[in-house]
Amino acid sequence: MRIHIFLVFMIMFLISGCSFYQQNFKSTNYQSKNFSQEKLRSIAREWKNTPYVLGGTNKKGSDCSGFTQNVFAQFHTKIPRTTKAQLHSGKKISKKYLQTGDLVFFKTGRGPNAMHVGIYLSNNHFIHLSTKGGVKEVSLNDSYWKSKYIGAARYGL
User: Fold this and answer.
1) Domains by residue range for the chain, with CATH
2) Which keywords are on file for this protein (predicted)?
3) Catalytic residue status for 64
């Protein structure tokens, strides 16, 4: 009898743990969230004068993953706080299948994880909070970003 109670308790514990994880990092399809280039560019303009501050999470000062987390929150989509966690928690996407709203990651050698993250727009362009300050739109084909690219992740599908 004690073994049965223990097993039931363990199963309930495991089930609740899985649903918590999905609730925090899983959302609905991008199209239902209106993840559009126009909306992303509009948000980027709001952040154009934001200084890069490691650990920051708002327009007074933010780092790259604070920026991406903030943008996704505007689409009612929760993503992890750090660049490394954002990379590992989303669905891995091949570069040739990138869609508007996918996160793109780079190994820059800077910051606590030596990584950087931006949000894909289209036609090999993405937005990111630059370490020089402010949100910039740049191309994945730029020689700097092309050589640093390490992968992409999608949330919500």
Assistant:
1) 2-154 (3.90.1720.10)
2) Hydrolase, Lipoprotein, Protease, Signal, Thiol protease
3) yes
